[in-house]
Amino acid sequence: MDVKELYENINKYMNKKVTLSGWIRNHRKQKEFGFIDFSDGTCFNHVQLVYDNKNKDFDEIQKYHNGCAITVDGKVIESQGSGQDFEISIDKIKLEGDCPEDYPMQPKRHSDEFLREQAYLRPRTNKFQAVFRVRSVTAYAIHKYFQEKGYVYFHSPIITASDCEGAGQMFQVTTLDLDRVAKDKKVDYTKDFFGKRSNLTVSGQLEGETFALAYKKIYTFGPTFRAENSNTKTHANEFWMIEPEIAFCDLNQDMDIMEDMLKYVVSYVLENCATEIDFFDKWVEKGLKDKLNKLVKSKFTRVTHEEVITILRDADVKWEFEPKYGEDIAKEHEKYITEYFNGPVFIKDWPKDIKAFYMKQNDDGKTVAAVDLEVPGAGELMGGSQREENYDKLVNRMNELGMETDSMEWYLNLRKFGGCYHSGFGMGFERLLIYLTGVENIRDVIPYPRTPGNCEF
Amino acid sequence: MDVKELYENINKYMNKKVTLSGWIRNHRKQKEFGFIDFSDGTCFNHVQLVYDNKNKDFDEIQKYHNGCAITVDGKVIESQGSGQDFEISIDKIKLEGDCPEDYPMQPKRHSDEFLREQAYLRPRTNKFQAVFRVRSVTAYAIHKYFQEKGYVYFHSPIITASDCEGAGQMFQVTTLDLDRVAKDKKVDYTKDFFGKRSNLTVSGQLEGETFALAYKKIYTFGPTFRAENSNTKTHANEFWMIEPEIAFCDLNQDMDIMEDMLKYVVSYVLENCATEIDFFDKWVEKGLKDKLNKLVKSKFTRVTHEEVITILRDADVKWEFEPKYGEDIAKEHEKYITEYFNGPVFIKDWPKDIKAFYMKQNDDGKTVAAVDLEVPGAGELMGGSQREENYDKLVNRMNELGMETDSMEWYLNLRKFGGCYHSGFGMGFERLLIYLTGVENIRDVIPYPRTPGNCEF
Question: Is A348 helix (H, G, I), strand (E, B) or coil?
Fold first, then answer.
């Protein structure tokens, strides 16, 4: 039986015998009694196991260290002490796996840095146990949202020969023997596995568009890779992305979907990870729960980039970076804008020169139908756009940017073969998790993070 | 509105005005009438749109080619013709995106080979529309099964420095400039992105075990990679795997879960993709639906590898490959065994020398607690094992196999730090899809397949 089942149906099990398997998180030994803080990992809550010296195995049990795996038979009883409603009085206990006294995960507060070095053990701590369960439940909430609305889950390819979003930041994938390359003093891609240079995907959007024009509504949810050599709290080189794409959908409808999805996912997590959110609220980010509850009830504001710049320039603030029409905005500006509107803000119609080639060109000739969602306390959480559906405009833009169009024929053809107005957006999964948990460093919301120089486990 | 919504609530919409956006799959023009076979991709069913020369746009509509994107306003009426219960009488139609007459996806039967060359357009055909919707629904069924049973979804890392399952078959990931390597005549991995050689994962199991020993029940569902240079119907170099891992679970319980999960997923697909399964049953694999319904009701047999060899050797069959104790079995043997037991068969307790190092060594000293599930008409669909939880036995086995243990310290430590008996299994997602759809070639169940020499789109 799982501890989760016990908590959910405690009345059913009260005063009954149960058998549980799990781990000793903390063992407090007294002369005539013992208390075991026990977890089986199926829910955030632990169970207190109690025994006394009337138990024939008393001396044996007292030898069990923190970290041991055990199977316990006992009776569920009302708790004598404070801190829990019930506890289990041990009849019999079996040691499944021992644990040495120098086990690194002792019941005390460890630093995040220390725990990153022990990444394979950190899900055994309260904090990371909570983080990675929230990760799992959030992933499921995203699938549930899109599936129930009839979206098709599309697996975009991971290895790709396309490099249209910037090859400089891509990881190369190869089966060439590099020692051989060094020895032969030449690189022959015709001998590589795919007969040409190939890379890890940086985005599944372009391929996603091909499926949106067949299924109307699709989403991706898979790993993406950027070989950026930056060591910040918000960058990892391997991360998961969600990229929905919707045919017959303009920028306004795109924003409706972004807002609806985010509220759904946050509500789902509040409801299904209540204990974890309470924990984060208490120990990781004070006010987290209010922040999330407020988001769900917020009206998201929609303003243009130009309006934002005007607001910023009119503000009585000394900026580190001066806000300028036609240019990107800085973190300090994002923060001001969400405070100004007291809630999430969609900033739309961005200057075309700072946005991607595939975004729909607005009639003003200066902006594109792109949108970023700025969320209080998180900054940019999602970015989307209506896609340029006009073949000629798209080709012209690619030519302007010096992009090669031959290898993109399939993408361009989508505009010829029953193309239609369509939109989509991207959400970094880890960025959402940082927002949901209050955890600050992306390394702490990915089981085994990949960052420059770090590829352990 | 979606066509799916229309089909699911046809009574509500009968004799009402509706607006739909989607694509012309076939346009049959007559002198005074026209019939448009219309699909919006939200369900397998199409809708018939009808118009006559009383419509003021009659001449304009008649110009619309197959493949065009349209938005149509019309009235839902009972169908005059056979083949459908209702149709839509067109009031107004708007051309969203034109399509040339030489559009490759004309309404006729195309070969799978031709469609692979047009992979970005093939989801617009009935067959592939059905395949990739089943892919999406099946993925969701798998998540739903595990999440509802309290499993934690674990994202195993894609880029890994571990090579313990055979580096020869791995793709290398690098940011080294290969031209530079050729020029410098040496490979310096300290200059590579992670400071050492790194690869694409071939399995998330070992990392999955670390999380199973924290959460009790976990599953992975992500892409995996094998650089095998083989061009068969069942091999792709990039594919998706599901790898559940369960603590306090022996081989028998592992088989219980494999059986339960498979039955759940097949039932879910039968229920939620009934139209698609009917289509496959009629056009792709006759008897598919019976096969799937039978599986759900089957009792799965459990036999040992040794028993299987005895049955094969006693059989009155002239084998191409002679069945031998202590050796692997061939496709012809798998087929015979599922026919012999008239249903799915778990073959367990395999000779240790043909199985992986991490599998639990049985007391006989010759076999390991491994299991393969053989399914009629599919062969091996899943493989699992109880894992060796004894530290010394595991290290000895790795030494026997000449494996390096230093970099695997974290994996070995799982046996020291509260280790316990635990088991898991792996299922190739595409192999399951081949079984569910009757489609024979793995290239036809992956949106953009990667095979030797092929990395298009």
Answer: strand
- Chain A residues near residue B152 by CB distance under 8 angstroms: 41, 132-133, 136
Reported as type and span, the H/E element at residue A12 is helix A10-13
- Which of B150, B448, B454 lies closest to A194 in CB terms? B454
Global pTM reads 0.97
pLDDT of A245 higher than 60: yes
The phi and psi torsions of A159 (rounded to 5 degrees) equal -85, 130
* Mean pLDDT for all residues in chain A: 95
End-to-end CA distance of chain B: 31
Q: What mean pLDDT is predicted for residues B104-119?
A: 93
Check whether B40 has a pLDDT greater than 90. Answer: yes
Asked if B215 lies within 8 A of A123 by C-beta distance, the reply is yes
pLDDT tens digits, one per residue of A4-37: 999 999 999 999 999 999 999 999 999 999 999 9
* Best to test chain A binding among B152, B224, B276, B443 (most A CBs inside 10 Å): B152
Q: Which residues of A touch B420 (CB under 8 A)?
A: 21, 69, 96-97
Q: Distance (Å) from the C-alpha of residue A441 to the closest C-alpha of chain B?
A: 17
User: Per the CB < 8 Å rule, is A457 touching B100?
Assistant: no
3-state secondary structure chain B: CCHHHHHHCHHHHCCCEEEEEEEEEEEEECCCEEEEEEECCCCCCCEEEEEECCCCCHHHHCCCCCCCEEEEEEEEEECCCCCCCEEEEEEEEEEEECCCCCCCCCCCCCCHHHHHHCCCCHHHCHHHHHHHHHHHHHHHHHHHHHHHCCCEECCCCCEECCCCCCHHHCCEEECCCHHHHHHHCCCCHHHCCCCCCEEECCCCHHHHHHHHHHHCEEEEEEEEECCCCCCCCCCCCEEEEEEEEEECCCHHHHHHHHHHHHHHHHHHHHHHCHHHHHHHHHHCCCCHHHHHHHHHHCCCEEEEHHHHHHHHHHCCCCCCCCCCCCCCCCHHHHHHHHHHCCCCEEEEEEEHHHCCCCECECCCCCEEEEEEEEECCCEEEEEEEEECCCHHHHHHHHHHCCCCCHHHHHHHHCCCCCCCCEEEEEEEHHHHHHHHHCCCCHHHCCCCCCECCECCC
Mutation target vs B (from A25, A420, A444, A451; most B CBs, 10 A cutoff): A420
Predicted confidence band at A374 (pLDDT cuts at 50, 70, 90)? very high
ipTM of predicted assembly, 2 dp: 0.97
Which pLDDT band, with edges at 50, 70 and 90, does B165 fall under? low
Tokens of B290: 């019976």
Question: Inter-chain contact A159–B124, Cβ cutoff 8 Å?
Answer: no
From chain A, the residues in CB contact with B456 under 8 A are 161
The size of the A-B interface in CB pairs under 8 A is: 327
What's the confidence (pLDDT) of residue A272?
Answer: 98
Mean pLDDT of chain B: 95
| Strands of the A217-225 sheet, one edge to the other | A152-153, A217-225, A238-247, A422-428, A379-386, A367-375, A345-351, A301-304
Q: Searching chain B, which residue's CA lies closest to the CA of residue A215?
A: B41
Q: Give the residue from B133, B149, B159, B246 with the most A CB atoms within 10 Å of its CB, the best one to mutate.
A: B159
Looking at beta carbons, which residues of chain A come within 8 Å of B196? Answer: 455
